Amino acid sequence: MDEGKALKIRLTFSVVLVGISLMFAAVVTDHWAVLSHRVEHYNSTCEAAHFGLWRLCTKQFYIQDKATKERSCGLITLTGDRNCSYFKHFSPGQSTEIFERTTQKEYSISAAAIAIFSVGFAIIGTICILLSFRKKMDYLLKPASMFYTFAGLCMIISVEVMRQSVKRMIDSKETIWIEYYYSWSFACACTSFVLLFICGIALLLISLPRFPQNPWESCMDAEPEH
Known about the structure:
Layout: H1 3-28, E1 33-37, E2 44-51, E3 55-63, E4 81-86, H2 97-102, H3 105-132, H4 141-171, E5 177-182, H5 184-207
Antiparallel strand pairs: 1-2, 1-5, 2-3, 3-4
Helix pairs in contact: 1-3, 1-5, 3-4, 4-5
């Protein structure tokens, strides 16, 4: 592997590490979506919730601003009592009745499972690319690029499953939620998809053999790389 190619791989790998870090941040945190319900009377208790792939957190606080136009709880960052619990289908001893009432658990299980596949693909890709720096093992760049591409695709599929889950909760007449917004964990997941997918394609292009410089050259009789 020549120095120019090695430099390109290192630069691409550094961007991949950023994407993997964002992916891990999205998977382990619980700020994918924030939900709030309708407020009928001010100076009353309002309940809001934010959740991720594994855990749901609810928060209660008092609404005292009569000038507020929106009849919802507002931002979840307001001070109040916070109660977090893991989803019942992941931790049987925990209780998450609010979540079980408002969406199908299949959505949560699917999103979490696909995210785990994404993490696995990213780990295998990293192992391959680290081994490719050894002498005569640069052939591992191609599988590494494919694993990173698959990791990005799995992450965006998990994002879409989560988005559909939130949409069903808002549209359902059986729920109290009327307003939602996606939070920073959701943004981390989307950004990791972009970085991993683009860098996976870039690594694949870098790993390809040198194309003939002249039209009359063929791949077999082109000058070998030094």
